[in-house]
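Predict the 3D structure for this chain.
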Amino acid sequence: MTVDGAEILGRRVVYRSSVFDVSEQRFRFADGAEHACAVVEHPGAVAIVALDDAGRWLLIEQYRLPTGGVLLEIPAGTLEPGEAPELTAHRELREETGFAAASLERLGGIWMAPGFCTEFIHYFVARGLRADPLPHDADERISAPVAYAFDEVLAAIEAGRICDAKSVVAALLYERWLRGPGNAAARP
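Done. Predicted structure below.
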């Protein structure tokens, strides 16, 4: 198989978890050079800028074991096998904030760590929120959502209170979205 100038020569899964696999892969560039790479194979995720009726972001606090503490962040979650990103976004929004959205609009997407991981995050703006909760996943500890105006989100990023990559990127994508045609009504 050839992908963008590199031929995959072999793949061996060395670790399986409930969320991702880790594989060792060998590949060859078009110039004949061969290399090995460990790859975290992740199904992808969604991240949601959930806007209340006043245009404020709904942020949650969630315990994150790798950080050793609680992070202030936007709602997000992992794609289930075969699940469209829009469906994941609707489900995760209900699980993490207790609200369903009347509309979702795509903001864009990013590779989280393309040097070793296949995780791609799809970003959405959710509007027309109404209470419609789903239970949190068993391994999640999430606070009730707190509303932040966009300038407060930016200040929290500047102060280091919002410091996870997906939420920081969301601010950049949202700012670009606000400048887009037809989004004047969404401006705070």
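Helices lie at 85-97, 150-158, 165-179.
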